[in-house]
Design brief:
The chain is of the alpha/beta class. Helices cover about 45% and strands about 15% of the residues. Helix 2 (about 45-55) runs parallel beside helix 3.
Length: about 270
């Protein structure tokens, strides 16, 4: 097991750095990472206090700093300490600058400006929370995406993830004994996507859910044959209505959401969201 101190310095919230570091670390095994987050670094005085901490816990330094003086001081001190240092966004910004023929605007946190897209994302999150688990069928036509599938097929977490990407999402459970409202089958604006999974995986997830609620794990809810029948019922419905289907058995929430976004873009190619 390799132990690594990872210092993430940002002149904004540090969200971008955290995502980059997470993506990079996912490619390595056997690493114990100790992350040190240093957000809102905008002065040399603040940086000097952080450098004292970095010197005591040396490791890889990754940064996004637009203030040239602060940046140069960080690079100089890290080089003096013999520490590896990476500017996370430099290659992207330099490539964009060459392509667009423009100098980048050195403004910290510019991606977090409260613009129309920000408020649209907030609206999407509110809509999605209000239309979880089949709630509010009268508003489903306003959704961008409608997810449907049997219980515990990742509908809610996928909906929330998509909402954070700016999509209004409603999700509807499919229950053999209680068919969904007929309005589901006449939606025009939203794309309806069916989520499915393997019976074995679904039984496992449902058992864990029951155990977490201190309920008996031996019910029809986790019966192998009953679960297989539920999934078959859902697949017939997906097929009958021509809805695209995504198997979430071996997909993460992020991968499922990416596949759904691709479907949305195929339906409306101009709809591109951050």
């Amino acid at each position: 097991m390799i132990r690594l101190h990872l210092h993430l310095l940002s002149d904004s919230t540090g969200e971008t750095l955290e995502n980059i570091a997470k993506a990079g670390l996912a490619q390595f095994e056997g690493v114990e990472t100790i992350k040190h987050f240093w957000p809102m670094v905008r002065s040399q005085g603040h940086l000097d206090r952080i450098l004292l901490e970095i010197a005591q816990r040396p490791g890889l330094v990754i940064f996004t700093l637009v203030n040239n003086d602060v940046r140069k001081r960080l690079e100089s001190r890290c080089h003096a300490l013999g520490l590896p240092i990476v500017s996370a966004l430099d290659p992207v910004i330099e490539a964009l600058s060459r392509l667009l023929g423009q100098e980048a605007i050195a403004r910290p946190g510019r991606q977090h400006i409260l613009d129309a897209a920000y408020f649209a994302r907030v609206d999407a999150i509110q809509f999605t929370i209000a239309h979880d688990d089949g709630i509010g069928p009268e508003d489903w036509e306003e959704a961008d995406i409608v997810l449907t599938g049997v219980s515990r097929s990742s509908k809610t977490p996928t909906s929330i993830y998509l909402a954070n990407r700016g999509y209004k999402v409603a999700n509807i459970p499919l229950v053999v004994e209680a068919p969904p409202p007929r309005s589901l089958f006449s939606l025009v604006h939203p794309i309806v996507v069916g989520l499915t999974t393997s019976p074995d995986r679904l039984v496992q997830i449902r058992r864990n859910r029951l155990l977490s609620l201190n309920q008996s794990p031996e019910t029809a809810y986790v019966d192998q044959e009953a679960v297989a029948a539920e999934l078959a019922y859902a697949r017939r419905m997906f097929s009958d209505h021509g809805w695209p289907v995504i198997d979430v058995t071996r997909r993460s929430i992020e991968e499922t959401a990416a596949a759904i976004i691709n479907l949305v873009n195929e339906k409306s190619p101009k709809d591109t969201r951050a």
